[in-house]
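Q: What would this chain look like folded?
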Amino acid sequence: MKTKRKKKIYPSQEYSNLKGPIRQRLVAERKKLGLSQSQLGSKVGVSGAMIASLESGRSKPGLEVYLMLQEVFKVSGEELFPDF
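A: My prediction, written as structure tokens:
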């Protein structure tokens, strides 16, 4: 039985699996602050898995999370989630 090898992710491929500027903006803002998904989740009051879900587009934030993300990133909510 063959085992699958993990692909190496190079810096140029960092955003290749993300779809759309919303997710890119969330990832870019988080990385600008030097935070992991779990660290950002702790600041906002949610799990790291929830941040991953937001970044991948699988879910949208509730109002409280939306407001906390604005506060942490010091960016308007419309810039982070223009379709919210």
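The chain has five helices and no strands.
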